[in-house]
Automatic annotation (TrEMBL):
Localization terms from the record: Cytoplasm; Nucleus
Family according to the record: Belongs to the methyltransferase superfamily. METTL18 family.
Organism annotation: Bombus terrestris
InterPro entries to which the protein is assigned, alphabetical: Methyltransf_16, SAM-dependent_MTases_sf
Protein name: protein-histidine N-methyltransferase
Length: 287
C-alpha cells in the first residue's frame, strides 16, 4: 500500500489540519539562473557523484546520486529539506514537497510519452519536475523545456546538474531550457521578461505525482488552465489515492470535468497493485 512517509510529528500536524492551513507560507515563484560555477560541471562532481541509469527503453540518463544531493544540501545548510530528511518524511507542507525522489508514476509517464508523443520543437513545461527526468526526455528529443519545482534547493542540487550532465554542449542546451521554483499560484502569474513581459504558454505540460494534496488541486489546475496553448496537451500522472494525505486522481479529474473547459481522457492505467493512471487533457473545441 502506498503511503507518504510522515514522521510521528508530521502525523500530528496532519491531524491539526485547520491550524496547518492557516499558518502555511508558500514560497513565491521565481526564475532560477544558472551560474558560471554551476556550468563547470567537471569541477563540481566526481564520477561516483552520479549514476547512468536506463530508466526507460533506449533512454539512458545520468542522474545525481541522492547521497551527493544530501551532502550539498548540508553544505549549504538547506534546513527545510534537511528537516524532512531527518524525520524520514517525504514532505513538509510549504517547506519541502518531495522533489529529491523519483516517484513511481514518473516512470509510467516517461514510458508513455516516449511511445506516444512527438517532441520535436515543442515548448514543454515539466511541472513539479523534481529530478527532471520527464523534462530531460523532452530536451533529448529537441524540445524547449521549462523545469519547475517548489524548492530552489531541488532545482540547484539535482535538476540543473542532471540537465548539464546529459549534454556535452552545455551552454547550447541552456538556450533551450529555463528553471523556476516556488508555489504554483504565483508561478501562474509570472511573466516572461524576455518576451515582452507576456505570459508563457506551452504546447505540452507534464506533471507526475503532484496531486497528493487536495488543498493544492485548484492552483495546480490553474497552471494548465492559464498556461496551456489552445491546441496544447496536458498529461497528469498519479495514483488513485494517496494514503496519509488524502488526494487522488479521481478528485483532480472531477475538478477538471466540473470546470468544463477541458476534455479528459484516461490514456493509461496499470493492472496490478494500487491503481495508477495517466490523464490527458485538451481544451474543448468551440462550437
Amino acid at each position: 500500500m502506498f503511503k507518504f512517509g510522515f514522521s510521528e510529528n508530521k502525523q500530528d500536524e496532519v491531524k491539526g489540519e485547520d491550524t496547518k492551513k492557516s499558518t502555511l507560507n508558500w514560497i513565491p515563484a521565481s526564475k532560477v539562473e544558472v551560474s558560471e560555477l554551476e556550468l563547470q560541471i567537471e569541477n563540481r562532481y566526481e564520477p561516483n557523484d552520479y549514476r547512468e541509469c536506463l530508466l526507460f527503453p533506449d533512454c539512458k540518463l545520468k542522474l545525481i546520486q541522492h547521497e551527493k544531493a544530501l551532502h550539498d544540501l548540508q553544505k549549504y545548510n538547506c534546513t527545510n529539506i534537511l528537516e524532512a530528511e531527518s524525520q524520514h518524511s517525504d514532505r513538509i507542507p510549504a517547506k519541502y514537497e518531495g522533489g529529491l525522489k523519483i516517484w513511481e508514476c514518473s516512470y509510467d509517464l516517461g514510458q508513455y510519452l516516449l511511445k506516444n508523443i512527438e517532441f520535436q520543437d515543442k515548448f514543454v513545461l515539466d511541472l513539479g519536475c523534481g529530478t527532471g527526468i520527464i523534462g530531460l526526455i523532452a530536451l533529448l528529443k529537441n524540445s524547449i523545456v521549462h523545469f519547475q519545482d517548489y524548492n530552489v534547493e531541488v532545482i540547484k542540487t539535482v535538476t540543473i546538474p542532471n540537465v548539464l550532465l546529459n549534454f556535452e554542449d552545455r551552454e547550447s542546451v541552456l538556450n533551450r531550457c529555463q528553471f523556476f521554483c516556488g508555489d504554483w499560484e504565483s508561478f501562474t502569474k509570472l511573466r516572461d521578461s524576455n518576451n515582452g513581459d507576456e505570459f508563457v504558454e506551452y504546447d505540452l505540460i507534464f506533471t507526475s505525482e503532484t496531486i497528493y494534496d487536495p488543498d493544492n488541486h485548484k492552483k495546480l489546475y490553474e497552471v494548465f488552465k492559464r498556461r496551456l496553448k489552445a491546441n496544447g496537451i496536458g498529461f497528469i500522472a498519479g495514483k488513485s489515492y494517496y494514503f496519509g494525505v488524502g488526494g487522488g486522481m479521481w478528485q483532480f479529474q472531477n475538478l477538471i470535468e466540473e470546470d468544463a473547459i477541458f476534455d479528459v481522457e484516461i490514456v493509461w492505467r496499470n493492472t496490478e497493485g494500487l491503481q495508477r493512471e495517466i490523464l490527458k487533457i485538451t481544451r474543448k473545441q468551440q462550437s
